[in-house]
Fold this protein.
Amino acid sequence: MTNPRNFDSLLAVFLLIAAVLACSTGTSNSDVAKANQLVNEGNAAVEQGKKFVVEAEDKKNAMLQMNVRRIAEARVIAAGAIAAYDKAAEKCKEAAQKYDEASRLKISEKFKQYLMLKVKEYNKRAELVEVAKDTPQALIESTNRSSFVIRVNSNNEKVASLSKEANELASQADRLQKENPSDFK
């Protein structure tokens, strides 16, 4: 027979080990709360970024619709579009950084996978915005209409490709979230 005292000590050691393992492998409520806070901050950056993209696109469209005789004015508008694109890219990178930070916390594996997809998506969107600003940049640098048109057409193809990649990442993240609702609180 085992000594009851040894049995109690052994049981206490096993319970301690189980508690340590549970804490180290499980999710922590404080980590989940912190992850959610970081996601909210990332989402806020996304919303701000969207406003800058709208501003940039409006300026780009205004620039493109200007009469060629007003090229100096169009170039000023183009510079404003570039500045707005730069701000949008910064916000995309900020969102990706927040999602990345959240993914490093002790949260469910599905939530981590979702966040890593969001990191990739917003890094791709930052790249997209950087490429999109080449259209107003082309107007500033162009010396003739044909070189401008060639550069814009090439740029539009790159933007479309990057947009497709970013949208696919967003779809994967949305699908993961819909398939695992209990992992997203």
